[in-house]
Amino acid sequence: MKLEDLAGLQLTYDVVGSTRYVETPAGYHRLEYRQRIGTGDEVFQRAADALLSWRMQPAAGLPMTATDTTAQLGSNSLGRLGPGLLIGRSPLDGIGLPVPCRVVWTVNEPDRIGFAYGTLQGHPESGEESFIVTRDPDGIYFTVRAYSRGATWYTRLAGPVTRKAQHYAARRYANALQQLATR
């Protein structure tokens, strides 16, 4: 699968925009992970820039390419789920399962910036994941919210293991974004 192949693919779920809300759509598993990543306007801006320019995923060990240099409504992205997410950057980064996604909503407010992408055909999961940086009175926070269910026999069979892996990935994303924002 190549990045240019994604334009013709459809989303694999019908609850588009679901990560904007707290309610879990029927038939989906929910993940919510929130981590304080620092304080101050500089940290907020650097985190927002790293998130919107697709630098968080590779820093967390998920190689990623996208059709646009910044995440915007309709942007397609293609990641590779492989050994890098487990051990960090790896010479095997180009090997792994394709994880094609499309940005389905964005937010750009003075104290809240981010986006959500939804799974496209060929992704091992079906659902949506959002990444939001917020400026709160006590610091800068990063939140990952996802609703998903297995889209392949192997992700359905893995069940709880897949959900643990998603939680692990959310922690890796938060730690990577914190490093990118506080350097």
Automatic annotation (TrEMBL):
DUF1990 domain location, by residue? 12-176
At the top level of its lineage, which domain of life is listed? Bacteria
Tell me what this protein is called: DUF1990 domain-containing protein
